Amino acid sequence: MRRAFTLVELLVVIAILAILAAVLFPVLAQARAAARKTACLSNQRQLGIALLMYRVDCDGATFFFGHNLDPSRLRPSEPFGATRENRWWNQIQPYARSLAILASPSDAGRRPHPLEDGQNGRPFVPRSYVANRALEGLIESAVERPADIVHVTIKNGVYDDSWFEPPINLYDKSPGNPPVLALDLQDGGVNATLFDGHAKWLSKGRQLSDPCGEPWSGVELMRVYPIPPTPGHPERTPWHPLCPS
Questions:
Q1: pLDDT tens for each residue of 215-233
Q2: Which of 20, 131, 228, 233 has the greatest number of beta carbons closer than 10 A?
């Protein structure tokens, strides 16, 4: 006689498989997220090396801020203007192995700059990282705590910003819109490249434990070395009610 599975036995097997799936799927998802986080940290270490090499060739100075309205510390009288060549990642590109390191595996958006969006013959450069304007144009000797201040970190995937300005960009960009920074993208925090070139993970709680984001945000540097105001636009300010100038 041939014996087949009973309905009860089939239901038991299905129940066991469902339980195993419920247990294993979150574990696998966490493992994938951890792998993406590690790959992102590797990208940022490479960016850190490129940043250091750039400064060696530029007498210790970091890259400059190119914008159509806002001037740079290096030229406070008038803006440099925004060009593809003066995007910070293209300034350091000769020292980086590939522009592919600009995309974090953790960032589903990877929204590029409008000059590199792949439209109308423009190149397509997906990008996840954003630079800290508190450090723009400064030389190494001006930064007393290089291992504590973030130079590059991950932007929110909905934005194409090249730079973030502390303290205002620690908070919602506008009512109902998230901050420029992806403060909790990776397991309640985010990877960051520090000014001394090393990269590490910072928790969101640690980053916002001070309303100015100090010391990692570099706000104190902005007080010592102010960002030039935008001519004719007094409303354009990096400061925030929770952290005034």
A1: 999 999 999 999 999 999 9
A2: 131
Backbone torsions φ then ψ of 152, nearest 5 degrees: -140, 140
- The pLDDT tens digits for 134-158 are 999 999 999 999 999 999 999 999 9
Answer yes or no: are the C-beta atoms of 169 and 180 closer than 8 Å: yes
Give me the residue spans of the domains in the chain.
Answer: 8-224
* CA distances to 37, 48, 53 from 188, in Å: 12, 23, 31
| 3 state DSSP class of 57 | helix
Nearest of 79, 6, 70 to residue 229 by alpha carbon: 70
Least Cα distance to 127 among 115, 141, 140, 139 occurs for: 115
d(CA 189, CA 205): 8
Put the strands of the sheet holding 129-132 in their side by side order.
Answer: 163-164, 129-132, 150-154, 189-194, 199-203
Q: The whole model's pTM is what?
A: 0.88
